[in-house]
Amino acid sequence: MKEITYAQAVCEALDEEMERDSNVLTLGEDVGFIGGNFKTSVGLLDKYGDLRVKDTPISEQGFVGMAVGMAITGLRPVVELMFSDFLLVCADQVINQAAKIRYMSGGQVTVPMVIRTPIGAGRSSAAQHSQSMQALVAHFPGFKVAMPSSAQEAKGLLKTAIRDNNPVLVLEHKMEYNKKFMIDDEVEPIPFGKANILIKGTDITIAATSALVLRSQEAAEILQKEGISVEVIDLRTIVPLDKETIIESVKKTGKLIVADDSHDFCGVASGISGEISDEVFYYLDAPIGRVSTPNVPLPFSPALEFPIIPSRDKIIEKVREMLK
Questions:
Q1: Which residues carry out catalysis?
Q2: Global confidence as pTM
Q3: What is the set of domains in the chain, with CATH numbers?
């Protein structure tokens, strides 16, 4: 094993897939010369040249549309959007084009493209650069949505995304990029739609995404000292969603919290809760709990921002509340 940062893991996945398949390329604002806004493509321009590592103008609608065209004509583009907030700038290309073309062509045309983009608050980047837009894309059929929680997951899930013949959105939490993790020397692609039980427990289940997986693990370790046994599930992908793993866990624990960075109303935590409620209703000892972002714009001021971010302490508080 070796220790690398989350950002380095993303870069390794891109490098290994570009070396494996000459049809893989990456494009976006600053992916080449400066190695990516969060340093996730450092060195790739020198290795593969500016035809396969392409710096683009500040026009998400333009270069995402270009990637759709590349994908349907045989290439495998990996697009980087600087922030997930900018999905709204290219929403037509994402939702009406990339997500629909395979269906509308009766399967005659595939769109093997990846959009990578950071989510999450914590850097005081204000309301237009701190959002978590996973619920938006997950709502519209056609895109797969992966949310890696660690360097190992980031590398394995990105490899799977690049090899998929459908469009995939890979959401990387901006607060994880500089964190160091131990990963395997050789990381294989991680299958979509198969959640990972990180901690086994008997009192309550937490099904989490992205950085909230790590915060849930921290919460579980603290609660263990209080005699509370928490089962922590890393969902890995929300489209497809591994409902079976969540359901089997709830049958054992009788309680469920869904934790995700998107806004609470019509968000991922709310959507997953509704999606599985019919199937777990008779096993629940309490209503399904949610830990997510309140329905307010993300503030610029740290004094206002940090109190609303879904945190380890909020997870602990929710667990204690549900176990009363």
A1: 60, 129
A2: 0.96
A3: 2-183 (3.40.50.970), 196-323 (3.40.50.920)
